Please model this.
Amino acid sequence: MSEDITKYGSEKIKLYEKKYDEIKVRTITDVFNSENKSLVLTKKEIGEMGIRALIVYAITDLISYFNIGKVMSAEQVAQTTDLIIEEYSQLKIDDFKLCFNRAKKGEYGQVYDRLDGQVIFGWLEKYAIERFRTADNISYYEHLENKQSFLNTSERLKKEAHERELEVFKLKYNEHK
Model:
């Protein structure tokens, strides 16, 4: 893999690292509102190596944050990256930034001298569950708003139709007099 990254070019990789550093998300709603696309869609634009570079950088940033004795080797980072791409390609890079920032803050529990793929996947699983619940709640509330809007429109149309019928009735009634 390191040979592939060398061929890919360090300038492009630095660009993706900068892009990751510039992501500012505090909530899952911020992620939803971000212009970034899911990994699977981003892959079409920047390729497999671009996606790998982003995820490797995100994991490396995470590792460098913690003061732990058992750090991940380059091979472990590469394997974890591949598994993340395989399992979480529907997420945006913003999701990883938010998840990893939450992990840094201890929101998914303390790190006890160990950071590896299994720990990261535990965090991602907790994050993904929360993300999908948030998406479900947003969808439900949008449904309620649309339903209310439809009901309001429906009631308004019924009232207008009733008023037209009343006008027609009055006209007919006045003609018969």
Summary: The chain has one domain: 2-131. The chain has a mean pLDDT of 84.
